[in-house]
Amino acid sequence: MNAARDKATSDYSALLAADAELAKAATDLVTASQGNVAFYAGNVGAAAINGIGAQDASAAANLLSAAMKSGTAGYTAAAANEAAAITAANTIAGLAPPRAPALQAAAKAEAEAQSAAT
Predict the structure, then answer these.
(1) Based on C-alpha coordinates, what's the Rg of the chain?
(2) How far apart are CA 10 and CA 99, in angstroms?
(3) What DSSP state is assigned to residue 118?
(4) pLDDT in tens, 46-76
(5) pLDDT tens, 93-116?
(6) Disulfide: which of 38, 74, 102, 115 matches 62 by Cβ 3.0-4.6 Å?
(7) Which phi-psi region, left, alpha or beta, contains residue 71 (left: φ > 0; alpha: ψ -120 to 50)?
(8) Using alpha carbons only, what angle is made at residue 11 by residues 1 and 21, rounded to the nearest 5 degrees?
(9) C-alpha distance from residue 92 to each of 87, 89, 98, 104, 112 (Å)
């Protein structure tokens, strides 16, 4: 019985450590993505493309948080991130008509992700 309890405690500690590492990686990815958005701010299309990545990174971080903690705030935040990504995809579609079908498909995928997060 003590061995099982010790194993469970050890496994739970490992889970918490892995969660902390994933949360840090997600935060680092969000920061890097936001840096790209700022760097390309002068080019609306490039900023919007990087904006999709930044919103997706933020959504992933929010979903990870929601999965490890109770409550729905992470899901709500992830849905908001996906809404911003949809806006960015539609912005790019309007700026690049030859790429519009691919970007509209990206916006559709973002909408499906948004729906899954709610």
Answers:
(1) 18
(2) 51
(3) -
(4) 888 888 888 888 888 888 888 877 778 888 9
(5) 888 888 889 889 988 988 888 888
(6) 74
(7) left
(8) 165
(9) 9, 5, 11, 9, 19
Distance CA 25, CA 12 (A): 20
- Retrieve residue 59's tokens: 């959504």
- Total number of residues shown for the chain: 118
Side chain identity at 52, as an amino acid letter?
A: I
Q: How far is it, in rounded angstroms, from Cα 106 to Cα 118?
A: 19
Indicate the residue type of 2. Answer: N
Half-sphere exposure at residue 117, Cβ-oriented, CA atoms within 13 angstroms: 27
Separation CA 66–CA 47 (nearest Å):
28
What does the pLDDT look like over 13-28, one tens digit per residue? 888 888 888 888 888 8
Per-residue tokens: 43: 């080019």
For 99, which DSSP code?
Answer: G
> Smallest Cα–Cα separation from 88: which of 65, 59, 62?
59
Unique residue bearing structure tokens 């691919």: 102
pLDDT at 1 over 80: no
